[in-house]
Each structure stands twice: as structure tokens, then as C-alpha cells.
Amino acid sequence: MHELGIVFYIIRDVKQVAEENSVKHVSKVVMNIGEVSTVVPEYLTDCWRWAADKEDLLRGCELEVQTIGAVSFCEDCKTEFGTVAHGKTCPCCGSGKTYLLRGNEVEIKEIEIKEE
Amino acid sequence: MDKVKVIEIKKSVFEDNNREADGLRAELKSRGVFLLNLMSSPGSGKTTTLISLINRLKGKLRIAVMEADIDSDVDAVKIKESTGIESIQLHTGGMCHLDAGMTRQGLDNLPLDGFDLVILENVGNLVCPAEFDTGSCTNAMILSVPEGDDKPLKYPLMFSVCDTVIVNKTDVLPYFTFDLDRCRKNVLARNPKAEIFPVCALSGEGIDALAEHILKMVKDWKEN
Ligand SMILES: Nc1nc2c(ncn2[C@@H]2O[C@H](COP(=O)(O)OP(=O)(O)OP(=O)(O)O)[C@@H](O)[C@H]2O)c(=O)[nH]1
Ligand SMILES: [Mg+2]
Ligand SMILES: [Zn+2]
Q1: Is B112's Cβ below 8 Å from some Cβ in A?
Q2: Which residues of chain B have pLDDT under 70?
Q3: What ipTM score was computed for the predicted complex, to two decimals?
Q4: For residues B19, B23, B26 and B29, what is the CA-based torsion angle, rounded to 10 degrees?
């Protein structure tokens, strides 16, 4: 359940941005979560609800998770392929010299504020 | 309808912790205190291994242990009783891992300048602790024989962040399909720099080599 620890990090970062922009209430936080980041979106939103509602700044604030598909690159044949389907082995040439291009993100993308 | 204002952030949530961890590492360096972060699944033998290890090292290094536990202080008491060295308990407040901030708070409770080596027994878990840099100078992990030699394949991040892998409970090898060579191969596929130490914490077999390795790491780090 490292999702709870991550939620505390999100809250810390959002609080700081809110303060810098004199924001009193945030209505939505949008996250970019990579497919192979080991973060489980359902756990993240559950932990978020519990922790965010304790803060005036974030009461009722929605956490939206946008998933980023994992893509790897083969150094030998320069092909991009889906990491989840093929793992570390290139499906085109069978090489193991591959690395992750994206899909490991645990990133705050943006926040939304409703203005009257 | 309400107008919605969007503020773009685009920031990794681990960024601040990574920065704090780097700060802590620099401070430990300037004070000459080597921090070793020990991770594993629950029950793989962290506390047993530490006791055996500390009893071999305590004449050569001034050692303290920080035990991270979700709630109890069983391990801290056991370490103190079995080795006589300073050991403190950190409560993680329900969290499954330690981060740099929590590690620093723990270190604040130790008279740091009196120690050469501080060992952090992290929370038993192969996923979460690997995500959070504690500020340690090195990471070690214990894989026990009953868990299986395929663990490096299933928990790649944990094995890629650990330069020391201790294979514990070698006394039960005859009862499991665990293959030491296959394990070694799986570990090195995740981290080619990893050094692997088969031990039996209960009998003390293999602990001398591990103690030598740790002594050398501390010495090299102090000299560089
Ligand atoms: N057979 C065998 N049992 C061992 C060995 N080392 C530890 N154990 C046993 O494994 C159990 C767990 O050991 P601990 O040292 O408490 O494990 P731990 O990793 O500190 O456990 P947590 O802190 O709860 O995660 C105990 O019953 C130990 O006696 C070993 O080398 N061989
Ligand atoms: Mg223990
Ligand atoms: Zn290829």
C-alpha cells in the first residue's frame, strides 16, 4: 500500500502550488500513472478520498487517473513495442537489449480550480 | 456554469523525496555515518541476520539499528537484548515503507556522531520500500529460500536498487526447489553489480563473509 504514501506526497505538492497561486479550494487533481509504475489506481483513489477530505483545500476534490501505456524500445532493431505484452524481449528480433520508454510515471499532471 | 481554471504541474511525486534523500546522504557523508537500508519480505530473517551480523561487527564498528515497524517494538527490543547495541523503533504510522523524511526523524533520535554504521530495518515488503529513497548510502535485501528463486523476476525494482543480496535460510535448501545458481542469474539480470551472500542466520554460516563485505563497504565509503 505505497499508494497512501504517494497520496501524502500529492497533497504536499498540491498544497504548495495552491499557496503559490493563492487558491482556496481545488476541485480536481489529474494524475499521469504509468502502466508499469506499480501504482494501483483504485487503491490510489481510495487513499485519496480518505486523506483529501481531511483538508479544507481538498475536501470533495476528485482525483482523476490518466493511464500511460508502457512502451519499450529495442536497441538492436529500433522497434517500439508494448511492454506489458512482451516484457523485456523484443517481439520483432528477439533481442533482450530493450529499455522502457514510458509507462513508469507517477506524476501530477494538473489541477483544476472552479472559479465563481 | 462555473469557469474552470487549470494549473499545469507536470511533476513526479517522488521528486521532493529524492531531493531530501540526496540531502540526507550528503549530510551523513560529512558526519562519517554510513546508513545501510535493509529490506525484505516479512519473516525472511532480517532481525535474526542483523543479530548474528552485529555480534561479529560490533568490536570493529560503532553500530546502531533503527527498526521500522508499522506498530510494534518487538524487533528493537530483541536487537538490544541480543547484541547490547543501541536500537530505536520508528513507527511508520500505518505506512508500508520509510521515506527520507521519516528516516531523518529517526536519525534525529540518535547521537549520530557516536556511530560509524547505522542499519535501517525497513518494513517487510518487496514492493513499496523500493520506490522510496531513504537517503541510505547503500541498499541491501534478504531473500529467504522458502520464497523461491524467481523473486527477482517478480519484483524487479527491489532487486535493481539493491547492491547486496543476502540469501537466507540455506539450511532448508534440501526441502525446496530453490536453485542458488538460477537465483544468482535472476539477481544479476536485474542488477549486474549485485553481490550475493548465501547465509544461514540461525547457525551463523556465511555471516563472516557478509560481515567482511559490509566492513569493506564502510571503509571504502569513508576513504572516498
Ligand atoms: N530455518 C531457518 N529459519 C530462520 C533463519 N533465519 C531466520 N529464521 C526464522 O524465520 C523467522 C523470521 O525471522 P525474523 O528474523 O524475525 O524475520 P524478519 O525479516 O525480521 O521478520 P519481520 O521483521 O517480521 O518482517 C523466525 O522464526 C526465525 O527463527 C535461518 O537461517 N534458517
Ligand atoms: Mg524483524
Ligand atoms: Zn528488436
Answers
A1: no
A2: 1
A3: 0.88
A4: -120
